[in-house]
Amino acid sequence: MQTVDLGDGIRCIETGLYRHGLAACYLVREGDALAFVDTGTTHTVPHLLRLVAELGLTPSHVRYVIPTHVHLDHAGGSGELMRHCPEAQLIVHPKGAPHLIDPARLTVGATEVYGPEAFARDFGTLVPVPAERVVVAEDGHRIDLAGRTLTFVDTPGHANHHGCVWDERSRGFFTGDTFGISYRELDTAAGPFLFAPTTPVAFDPDAWLQSLDKLMAYEPRAMYLTHYCRVEAPERLVDDLRHSIRALAELALAVDAGPADDRADRLRVAVGRQLVADAVAHGCTLDEVRIRSLLEVDIELNAQGLEVWLKRRARRAES
Ligand SMILES: [Zn+2]
User: Fold this and answer.
1) How far is the CA of 161 from the centre of ligand 1 (A)?
2) Are residues 188 and 70 in the same domain?
3) Which of 87, 145, 160, 254 fits as disulfide partner to 202, beta carbons 3.0 to 4.6 Å?
4) Residues with Cβ within 5 Å of ion ligand 1?
5) Ligand 1: distance of its center to the CA of 226 in Å?
6) What confidence tier does 281 reach under pLDDT thresholds 50, 70, 90?
7) DSSP state, 307?
8) What one-character DSSP code corresponds to residue 86?
9) Which domain range does residue 21 map to?
10) Contact 76, 107 (CB under 8 A)
């Protein structure tokens, strides 16, 4: 499994989900103290432990496991990793903590999204984290990694259980999904191509735009994305992401204004068109079939997430 040394004691680790270059997680090292930010899935954990051994350290050197949010490409391996790291604390958003202590609802929710076979194959079995090893991180919670301060910043929008981790040393944020998705295959002369993952079940465009303002107020030099790796000069990228959040929300409302039948299918078609058009407008010269295959999982998840968002809006309007 590949890792990339990004300097400042930060390694970007390929998690192995679906294809190389889709999902990463990070190891932060300060002296002999280690913290993982995101974990990949249960299947990723043996690779994480091997990396620790390659550094000449042991699982006891892992002080913190910090999932940015409890979607399974980010937090699926948390329980299994904690089981192997006796000294580690799990640092997690207040709304995410109950789901890692008792992952039953996550399993049900993810099985609904992915289907039972794909869930078992891609994510394995979720291991519960003992409650006494969980530290609930409110907004601004500071984490001391051998003198290096990491700060947990509440960032709802992609999910209401999402936080980003500010690293003063590198002046970078570990952003999970809050700073969007940017696959390296879609880089162009104009730079990285960013888009918004509107994954089920708590997409909230207004909250997300506010969270981006909150991140940018730190004047970050870099963002460490789960999907995928580091992007620099975020001030030059953030408007593309704002555009993507607004465009996907507007697209969903437009589909909703149309005929009521086949709404899910029409959303999927519209999301696919939007993301491909955005990539092409960014200067991506790959053929459309290739762009679609790179975005296949995201088109499906974005369409599902927008469907859930429309239903939630409708319920709110009724009540
Ligand atoms: Zn997510």
Assistant:
1) 10
2) yes
3) 160
4) 71, 177, 199
5) 9
6) very high
7) H
8) T
9) 3-238
10) no
At 265, which amino acid appears?
Answer: D
Rounded distance between C-alpha atoms, residue 317 and residue 238, angstroms: 31
Residue 300's pLDDT band (boundaries 50, 70, 90)? Answer: very high
Cα–Cα distance measured from residue 305 to residue 251, given in angstroms and rounded to the nearest whole number: 13
Residues 6+ apart with CB under 8 A from 149: 142, 143, 168
Given 181, 212, 238, which residue is the final one in a domain? 238
Quick check: 114 pLDDT over 90? Answer: no
Q: Any residues with CB less than 8 A from the CB of 223 and at least 6 apart, and which?
A: 172, 173, 175, 179, 215, 230, 231, 234, 237
Ligand 1 center from residue 71 Cα (angstroms) = 5
pLDDT at 1 over 80: no
In the reported structure, the alpha carbon of residue 263 is separated from the centroid of ligand 1 by a whole-number distance in angstroms of: 23
CA of 57 to the centre of ligand 1 (A): 30
pLDDT of residue 292: 97
Distance 197 CA to ligand 1 centre (A): 7
Ligand 1 center from residue 109 Cα (angstroms): 13
| Span from the CA of 72 to the centroid of ligand 1 (angstroms) | 8
Q: How far is the CA of 198 from the centre of ligand 1 (A)?
A: 8
Domains in the chain, number: 2
Separation of CA 181 and ligand 1 centre (Å): 10
Tens of pLDDT along 158-194?
A: 999 999 999 999 999 999 999 999 999 999 999 999 9
User: How far is the centre of ligand 1, averaged over its atoms, from the C-alpha of 141 (Å)?
Assistant: 21
Using the mean position of ligand 1's atoms as its centre, give its distance from the Cα of residue 28 in Å: 21
What's residue 191's pLDDT?
Answer: 96
Residues 199 and 274 in one domain: no
**Residue 105 buriedness (CB in 10 A; 0-12 / 13-18 / 19+):** exposed
Q: What CATH number does the domain containing 84 carry?
A: 3.60.15.10
pLDDT at 261 over 90: no
